[in-house]
Structure formats: C-alpha cells, structure tokens
Structure prediction request, 230 residues.
Amino acid sequence: MRLLLFDIDGTLVRGSPAKAAFGHALASVFGTAGPIAGHDFAGKTDPEIARELLEAAGVASGEIEAGLPRLWDRYLAELARLIPAAPAEALPGVDELIPALAARDDVALGLVTGNVEGGARLKLASAGLWEHFPVGAYGSDHSARNELPGVACRRATAHWGRPFDGSDAVVIGDTPRDVACGRAARAATVAVATGRFSMAELKAAAPDRLLPGFEDVDLAAAALTEPRGP
Ligand SMILES: [Mg+2]
Prediction:
C-alpha cells in the first residue's frame, strides 16, 4: 500500500487569504509583520516563516517563542473569518484525482505541509478536499519540513493498523524543498509545476517524477502510485 503525502499550497490548491491573515496576526501579536510583502514562503513551514519575518524585524528570539502560541490563535481566527469570502481553489485535475485515489484500496492519502494543522484544515475544507486526508504532518508538529514525513508515517501506521515507513511513501509537492524533504525520508518524490517553480527549476531538484500539473488524471495517478516505475 502506497502512502501518498501531498503538500497543500501550489500542489492541491492555490489562493486563500492566508498571507493576509498571517500578516494581520503577526502585527497584532508582535506589532510588526516584518518584510512580509517580499518574503519567500514557498516550501517553508509556518513557524519557520514567522521566525524569519520577526528576526528580520529585530524581535528577540525569546519574545518570538513566547508569542508563537498567541500568533497561531490569531492567525487561525483571522483565516476562519476571511476564508468564506475567498476560499482556496483546487488546482486543475485535483477535484477528480484526489477522490479517485481515495477510492483505491492500494493507496493511503495523507498530507505533509508547512501549514499549521488548523490552517491546513481551513484551506482544504474551503476547497472541499479535507475529508480525503485522514492523516497528516504539519508545521505545528515540527518547524523543520524534513522531519514531517516520519511523523506522517507514524500517524498512518496508527490509522491503518499496518506499518508504513519512508520507503512506502511518496512525497508530492511544488517546490525543491518538498523534493529534499521526501529524499531525506527515503520516500519517492513527485514534483508538480503548479506553484511558482518551473519544470526546469524542479528538474534540477531531481525528483523521481516531474509533472506539469494534474490535469491528465490517469497519467498523474500512474506517476503518483508508481513513481519509480512499475
Ligand atoms: Mg507548496
């Protein structure tokens, strides 16, 4: 049984007012959102992004750590307030691909995402996708993305009552960081060029498979379930 571990932003969905909610929460808790407008969020965990922005604004590390629990409370409240009017949008093919994979008995679906768990749930629920992912590992579990596939495998083992490790997993994402994280876990990796990285940039990260998107659902399903060939 293959454990498919999907990234969220740029891989399953796009849009959502998450960046606005994050900036609002940072300003509300710390008095600054740092250099958020030009900051690179891609492939990073939420705590990693928060620390980078606040350190750039000169906030002391003790103050950052002390304020993070309040930051997540404010961020999730703000995201929940904003997202009904601006839901995340499933990327092309996702609305067909994910239910088709969920219906297979040789595939288990999960998430590996830098989003804190509440943010992941709000984004995917707004796009009608949350119900398909019984397990996940989140930025709220660890700020280092490379630690997350192991967390997801342990949760999958508990959920499905059979052992999963990195060699059973496929890590799927839209950034070189997703590929590196899968490789660190000895998982297979599939990169998809629906975020801000081009096919050429993703190819340089050497994923097992590289897709332009999930529009060709049969091709995508084959690549995801047999990333290293049949
Ligand atoms: Mg992403």
Remarks:
- The first strand starts at residue 2 and ends at 6.
